[in-house]
Amino acid sequence: MGSLPPPSLDFSPIDHNPLKNGGSSHHHRQEISRDNLLNLFTSQQDLLNHFFKHLDLSQTLDFSRILLSTSGTVFFTGVGKSAFVANKVSQTLVSLSFRSSFLSPLDALHGDIGALSPRDVLVFFSKSGATEELLRLVPCAKAKGAFLVSLTSVSGNPLAGVCDMNVHLPLQRELCPFNLAPVTSTAIQMVFGDTIAVALMAARNLSKEEYAANHPAGRIGKSLIFKVKDVMKKQEELPVCKEGDLIMDQLVELTSKGCGCLLVVDEHHGLIGTFTDGDLRRTLKASGEAIFKLSVGEMCNRKPRTIGPETMAVEAMKKMESPPSPVQFLPVINEDNTLIGIVTLHGLVSAGL
């Protein structure tokens, strides 16, 4: 298949002369038309489709199996924009529990090549396969015994000829109208590398829990790692009282702990019930001045929703939101009904769940 022609785009600026009476100054107003933008995306789609259509699946499968079977580290290297891709693909593999790292070709020749061993694979990202820095690295990497793979887009390139394996990444042309800026070749490299990473992930049967363990700061990671005991308030943070305490005597406790409730306990710290700020308003409306003589135990909810400390925190949020009506907190009790904490909706949201 022949090369696609460059996108037919009008790059000429629109001239405006604000001096209508013979002045020489003028401004150039640059614009992007809707048609030009659509043409660019359509052309890029065609170029990417060329890659997918002509990619050698046998080469790709061999490459994938090499990475899967290596007992060492998979190193990636590249120069310029390809270096950014190599680094990103390496980080993707690391996030999937594979041993991987980026190796700078310049730093490698000044000591970092000491990280290579005969158990490792070194993958070169290079559009042309003729980058001088990468070619200088090859004999040094071979001396360390590593298995070398080149990922290139130009046929018959020198890098492919000196590596142990080459995978050709078909490139019809760059989207750049001058066919110079690497805006399609790097997209191809990224798509290829990340797709291989997902293939390795599937081959290793990486579980959602294992993936989450590598992303503890993300929402997915937190939802699969954090338990109620990790996000609950406990000890002096708990708004506790006894059932015989007068409601009016516990207003400070009710409002100062930021939970919107009182946790009513017995002498053994067993949970009896809960009394919320909503209960306070309803009691005041129904009882008037009689509220001054009412105890918390008389008006508390003795059948509150509760949760255990080992339950996943995301399940606590689901329980709060479940019918018949949502709640803002859950007392945390152990198997003996002893109160050990409280988990609040605000606390779960603040934790990133």
UniProtKB/TrEMBL annotation:
InterPro entries: CBS_dom, CBS_dom_sf, KdsD/KpsF-type, SIS_dom, SIS_dom_sf, SIS_Kpsf. The keyword Isomerase applies. It comes from the Eukaryota. GO terms for molecular function: isomerase activity. Residues 232-291, 300-353 form the CBS domain. Pfam families: CBS (PF00571), SIS (PF01380). Keywords: CBS domain, Isomerase, Repeat. Residues 1-28 are annotated as: Disordered. Residues 63-206 form the SIS domain. PROSITE patterns: CBS, SIS. Belongs to the SIS family. GutQ/KpsF subfamily. This is Probable arabinose 5-phosphate isomerase. It comes from Camelina sativa. The gene is LOC104781336.
